[in-house]
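RESIDUES AND SHAPES:
===
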Amino acid sequence: MNFTLLRASIIAALGGLLFGFDTAVISGATALLSEVFELSSSLLGLTVASALIGTILGAMTAGKPADVLGRRKTLIWIAVLYFVSALGSALAWDWHSFLFFRLIGGLAVGGASVVSPLYIAEISPARLRGRLVAITQFNIVLGILAAYLSNYVVAGLELGALEWRAMFGVEALPAALFFVLLFATPLSPRWLTARGRRDEAAAVLASLGASAAEDEVRQIEESLALERHSLREPLFRAAYRQPILLAVAIATFNQLSGINALMYYAPHIFRMAGAGSDSALLQAVAVGGTNLVFTMAALAAIDRFGRKKLMIAGSVGYIVSLAATAAAFYRYGTAFDAFGGTVVLAGLLVFIASHAFGQGAVIWVFLSEIFPNRVRARGHALGCFTHWFFAALISWTFPVIAEVSGGHTFAFYSCMMVLQLIWVLKAMPETKGVPLEEIQKRLGIE
């Protein structure tokens, strides 16, 4: 594999590592935040969801600067937002200032979820695109594991009133590193071509290992059809109905699995199942480790077996594990014994493994593939907006609903995954190994 291509992909995917860290770091601080700011269940849900409100805004707006400023420059600004959010959250002087800086972090997460995989997809050859884009997902879960480990280590330092501040402040270090490294990455050749800078695009493609850079630039130009289409062309047209529906569906199902409820509330869920505070943080580390291992397996499999087979395997695992977790909560209620707690831990480990091998690995790859060049940034942003809208909804309501019935919560997620399995079997196309310009033809887009 070309070194420049691999280096650029890994650096861009650091936006995913910060995405994962920012997503999961608050899970270790929910109890402390509830105590410091005197939060009810509904206000705790709002506090957790504040970052997700930012991700909705970030996902909605990232497509425009990605088209105008370019993919790399937009990622540089995203790194700045991550840094400001980390320091601001750590130094927050009251609940409202904490919400504000968490919302800033959410803007960065939403933007990174759009631009990082988009950039990697546009620099990657078709035969490697799946695993290279999936590096973003690998870094997301690495960031989640890093957050769980960081929280566990910080809790062990017994910092007292500074503990929750230290948990959030740690993120400033990788954010600064991300900012510096981005200056070593090339511009997107597809963005350069769209701007009429074909010689620069050809030079970048050659540096990335393309054997026929001029031919590839010509194919990109044909797909853009610049003589008939504009980058300002509306996304919501009949011609793009199929990729729009595919993007909205995969993003909606991703969150209706309950994955972000687990990411944000892992220690809280384990405490519901009878674990002590230290044990709950350690079990959250086990969740993060399982996520990482099965994401690595998915990276090896996604370009060999394809997106659809991974989604089928993940859907089946979702259904079984969520049903088992729901059954445990129905059986034990609020009086868990050691066996019941073990069933919940095992069920959620199978759940996270199913997510990592299926939806988690596939979603960002699939969203970056199904839209044509001329609307890819905005189409990807639509999918990310849908993802984060439902993430905010699930995370905001989880503490209140789970307080009433943990069984109902996980049973609902299991039923939603039955619907996902049906959608995958009936409607999801396979994009493995297909050039980006060919995918749009297969979806009936001229």
Observations:
- The CA atoms of residues 31 and 268 lie 8 Å apart.
- The chain has one domain: 3-442.
